[in-house]
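ok, trying the design again with the full structure, not the truncated one.
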């Protein structure tokens, strides 16, 4: 190797290397610009959660979306748009924002603590060079006393007084960022140690807060069945009122509420609770919200052998929220000699419409139900899970009798003898059901406090300015100079008021001297 080649090799610049790239990445991640970008991305990533139905909130709406537009829904599901807040990309933004805020806040907090302990700097030699300055009558002792009385941080030297105010601006800024960190931790704690469950309860039935009692249960990763609060209740009654017929807004809900008899723990005394929308039941930190309601007509079904095979309410799912026209499925595996199944169409306020019937009002003014009967094998012995709200494509079920598009509705108290001697179905009454969502979020209260602290910190950082004032002795009085360290606001007006107050205070002290 020649001398020239050796020299060229030695002078070749080296790359950053793994450590250098890690440092560069950390600096970029912990910059304020990156934190703001991630905060904007987090807000943007939350938007689909309000545009599309979420499985954790309304699984029924997600199921309808999948049925109505399966191609589009499949692509949306691939990108987790029905589970936005569980999506990997949402979690990545969340964690990066957390790391960025930690990297931003901790160094600034250390600098701020040093700045608070530091005394105000000495006065410049020539205060006339400052943006704000004035010559006034007075003395240094009077100026120092006045500034201390107004809670300025004051330092003195030979022939000068230095004062500083406005550290609360940076305190507010840091408070805002720390509160944001606490808010992120609180939300994360709620996801780990909280749970959410949905259940449908019919009038007269009870509910106990156990995993098995929920129709849909979504626990945090650190939640076990033993962690659920041991409350229970019975749904005594449900009442709904609507805008009456003839009005422009006929059928719109005015009010609805559920009357519950609640026990906070086994053996505890019962308490009466009226459950309303946005007025949840609270039991040991768990909140139970009223999120929906509907009708549950009651039936008595007798098999071909003359024995009662089913008796009770059947919840119907609402198809039309304006009239509460609903559909339900009745499965009777205990009927003999053949298992029975029924499709039902419930009409709260029934009127004829040509050869069809429809409901014109959501209230149960004239409740009827149309029935389509089937017999055969329900397939329940196969062990395959089935929905109680869907008859499905059972190949082993066949219609009983001649099926019509709109059979004559049954009124309360009426019965229909089934064809082929399969038995009888009787419409015995109408109950109502409610859907509830129980949520337990241990981070709820810390998140509330953090939100309040963030607002307070934001107000402090926007309303307070960092400023300094110096006073130097001169012949016949003092020179006052001022400087603001933050943009915004009119410090000139405050400085003029301050110099005027310093001069008046000095004069007042002179008068008080005997």
């Amino acid at each position: 190797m020649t001398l020239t080649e050796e020299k060229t090799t030695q002078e070749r610049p080296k790359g950053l290397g793994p450590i250098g790239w890690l440092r560069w990445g950390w600096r970029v991640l912990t910059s304020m610009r990156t934190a703001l970008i991630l905060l904007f991305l987090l807000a943007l990533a939350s938007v689909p959660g309000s545009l599309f139905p979420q499985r954790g909130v309304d699984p029924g709406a997600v199921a309808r979306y999948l049925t109505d537009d399966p191609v589009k829904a499949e692509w949306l599901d691939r990108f987790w748009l029905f589970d936005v807040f569980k999506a990997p990309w949402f979690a990545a933004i969340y964690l990066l924002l957390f790391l960025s805020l930690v990297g931003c806040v901790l160094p600034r907090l250390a600098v701020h603590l040093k700045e608070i302990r530091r005394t105000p700097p000495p006065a410049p030699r020539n205060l006339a060079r400052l943006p704000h300055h004035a010559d006034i009558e007075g003395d240094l002792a009077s100026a120092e006393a006045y500034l201390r009385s107004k809670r300025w941080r004051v330092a003195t030297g030979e022939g000068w007084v230095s004062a500083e105010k406005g550290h609360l601006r940076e305190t507010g800024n840091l408070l805002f960022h720390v509160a944001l960190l606490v808010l992120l931790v609180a939300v994360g704690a709620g996801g780990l140690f909280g749970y959410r469950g949905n259940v449908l309860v019919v009038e007269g039935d009870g509910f106990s807060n156990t995993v098995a009692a929920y129709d849909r249960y979504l626990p945090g990763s650190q939640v076990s069945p033993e962690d659920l609060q041991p409350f229970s209740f019975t749904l005594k009654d449900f009442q709904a009122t609507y805008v009456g017929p003839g009005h422009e807004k006929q059928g719109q809900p005015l009010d609805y509420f559920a009357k519950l008899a609640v026990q906070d723990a086994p053996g505890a005394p019962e308490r009466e609770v009226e459950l309303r929308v946005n007025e949840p039941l609270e039991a040991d930190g768990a909140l139970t919200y009223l999120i929906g309601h509907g009708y549950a007509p009651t039936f008595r079904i007798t098999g071909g052998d003359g024995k009662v095979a089913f008796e009770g309410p059947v919840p119907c799912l609402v198809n039309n929220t304006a009239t509460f026209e609903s559909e339900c499925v009745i499965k009777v595996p205990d009927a003999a000699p053949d298992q029975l199944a029924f499709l039902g169409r419930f009409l709260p306020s029934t009127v004829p419409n040509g050869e069809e019937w429809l409901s014109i009002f959501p209230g149960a003014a004239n409740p009827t139900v149309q029935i389509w009967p089937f017999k055969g094998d329900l397939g329940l012995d196969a062990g395959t899970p089935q929905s109680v709200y869907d008859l499905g494509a059972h190949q082993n079920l066949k219609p009983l009798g001649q099926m019509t598009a709109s059979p004559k509705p049954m009124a309360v108290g009426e019965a229909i003898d089934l064809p082929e001697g399969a038995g009888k179905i009787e419409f015995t009454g109408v109950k109502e059901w409610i859907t509830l969502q129980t949520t337990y979020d241990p981070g709820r209260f810390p998140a509330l406090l953090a939100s309040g602290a963030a607002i307070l910190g934001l107000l402090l950082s926007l309303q307070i300015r960092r400023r300094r004032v110096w006073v130097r002795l001169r012949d016949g009085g003092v020179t006052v100079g001022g400087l603001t360290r933050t943009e915004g606001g009119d410090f000139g007006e405050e400085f003029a008021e301050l110099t005027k107050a310093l001069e008046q205070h000095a004069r007042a002290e002179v008068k008080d001297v005997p």
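Keeping the full-length input from now on. The mean pLDDT is 87.
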